[in-house]
Specification:
Elements lengths: L1 E7 L3 H15 L6 H22 L9 E8 L3 E8 L23 H8 L2 E7 L2 E9 L10
Antiparallel strand pairs: 1-2, 2-3, 3-5, 4-5
Helix pairs in contact: 1-2, 2-3
Amino acid sequence: MHKFVLEAVPNPEESREIARQAILILKNFISDENILHDIDLVLTEACSNVARHAYDNRADCNRLELNITVVPPEYIVLEIADWGRGLCSESIDFTMPSPEAVGGRGMFIMSKLMDNFELIKEDNKNIIKLTRKVQEDQWLTKE
């Protein structure tokens, strides 16, 4: 098992950069470009959601944390955390919005591209936990 922690200030630029950094780490373990693309898309969406929605005040917008757990040759766990207002799991709609909708596709996309999607609240910490299974032949390394 391999663990990595990345931190950023949750603004649009750094939110995108933390996703890029994660993909650079994962390229050391995963050979399948489609999986890396899916994870990049999911992380970009999750991290930008933190930048846009987690904190009421820009001055409070001070922390985005990404924990990556790589367990070859089985799965990857991504935990995107903030200390902002958090999400209410009962109010999240995981269906695809109408074509006319301006937004609201992120949760749908994340839930479809990952094998497991959880919202966790630990004290003041809000976590989106995403798990993706990876087939044995899609790994660069088995350990």
